[in-house]
Amino acid sequence: MTHETGRDALRDVFDFDALLSEEERGWQDRAREFARTRIAPTIEEDFEAKRFRAELIPELGAAGFLGMHIRGYGCAGASAVSYGAVCAEFEAVDSGWRTFVSVQGSLAMSAIAKFGSEEQKDRWLPGMAAGETVGCFALTEPDGGSDPGAMTTTARREGDEWVIDGAKRWIGLASVADVAVVWARTEDGIGGFLVPTDTAGFTATPIDGKLAMRASIQCDIALDGVRVPDSARLPGATTLRGPFSCLNEARYGIIWGAMGAARSCLEIALERARARTVFGKSIGAFQLTQEKLATMLLEYEKGMLLALAIGRSKDAGTLSPTQISVGKLNNVREAIEIARTTRSILGGDGVTNEFPVMRHMANLEAVRTYEGTDEIHTLILGRALTGVSAFA
Questions:
Q1: Which Enzyme Commission number(s) are listed (predicted)?
Q2: Of these residues, 59, 158, 371, 375, which one is catalytic?
Q3: Rounded to 10 degrees, what is the CA torsion of 141, 146, 149, 153?
């Protein structure tokens, strides 16, 4: 039984693709083909070897996937739903590659597009869209992951230059990036700075020992007297609303991406349930297995419909940060549960790399933490419901 069999069975019950426009399906199909042919053949090997295949970056750029939601400057200007569909296809193969597209496009490129000067946009965005230049987004710090307001990295003005000191942690792509969007506290508030990674005093060290996201790169960054000209400061960002707006772009992609990983697991569960025989019949003929499959389908279907509704709102310009928190909290949580249930259907084989389920599960645990933990999004929703903030 092939992987397509599980996909066909799922499509017979819930044909999500039929809800997309022709243009949206075009982006989805291109991403699915790229992920299937360029990433999937080596992803288990790459995960095991902790290898990030940077040579694929220009191919992603040539296909138009990098910063695809941005208009102009060499970017595709695609819809939010198209971008979401692309995120789902990449994460269906591995969360690390959706993360790359997200860090490059939703974080680094979005920061420049939203808050940069025309000179900065012209300098950086075309090369980043083409995959010739890689960016990273340096916000999170070692002691303040969920509390950017406690930022200790500082930037002080000295004549026509800024001097940046501090440390960042869990910064995706930093060791392969050409430019870092560094967020720092200034005497006037929170500022963003475009720091070429070959600048003296900038050091990025990949974090080792990860049991998730092993086919991607996350780093510690040290900033020791890093000097950049005033022209490197993002003129449109002066408060935490700047990086938060970029985080919401990344969170949006996760809403779709997590469901891509869930779909991959569900397809495998369907295949296994129909193909494996115990006690004289397929395991899919047992009531407990069918209950598992039905529950997984319901949560996947609801998650995809939620992603689509949020995407349509984003394209209409009516999406709120609270709605993004609903999507991120629900879809990652349910994707993890779908992966865990699939593992139980696979039995002992589910813990081997013959199937991608444990890899998806480990990756999704990391996705659950970054761009806002479950706890943070829960409190965002609680504040919206009660009018009372429970953060402090």
A1: 1.3.8.6
A2: 371
A3: 0
Per the structure block, which two tokens stand in for 245?
A: 């707006």
**Per-residue b/e over 193-214, b at no fewer than 16 CB within 10 Å?**
bbbebebeebbbeeeeeeebbb
Q: What is the DSSP letter of 148?
A: G
Q: Show Cβ contacts of residue 26 under 8 Å, excluding neighbours closer than 6 positions.
A: none
In this predicted structure, what is the pLDDT of residue 189? 92
Instruction: Give me the DSSP letters along 80-114.
Output: HHHHHHHHHHHHHH-HHHHHHHIIIIIIIIHHHHH
Using CA atoms, how far apart are residues 101 and 122, in angstroms rounded to an integer?
20
Active site residue 371: yes
The residues with which 272 forms a beta bridge, in sequence order, are: none
Contact 367, 262 (CB under 8 A): no
DSSP 3-state assignment of 72?
strand
What pLDDT sits at residue 101?
97
Main-chain dihedrals φ then ψ at residue 387, nearest 5 degrees:
80, 10
* Predicted confidence (pLDDT) per residue in 85-98, tens digit: 999 999 999 999 99
Query: Which positions ≥6 away from 125 have C-beta within 8 Å?
Result: 67, 70, 72, 73, 74, 75, 109, 112, 113
Q: Kindly tell me if the per-residue pLDDT of 5 is higher than 80.
A: no
Q: Tell me if 188 sits within 8 A of 227, measured CB to CB.
A: no
Residue 186's φ and ψ, nearest 5 degrees, are -115, 175
Count CB-CB contacts under 10 A for residue 176.
17
DSSP helix/strand/coil, 184: strand
Structure tokens at 228: 């950049």
Domains of the chain: 3-129 (1.10.540.10), 135-232 (2.40.110.10), 241-386 (1.20.140.10)
E-strand spans in 241-345?
Answer: 277-278, 281-282
Give me the phi and psi of 165, to 5 degrees please. Answer: -135, 140
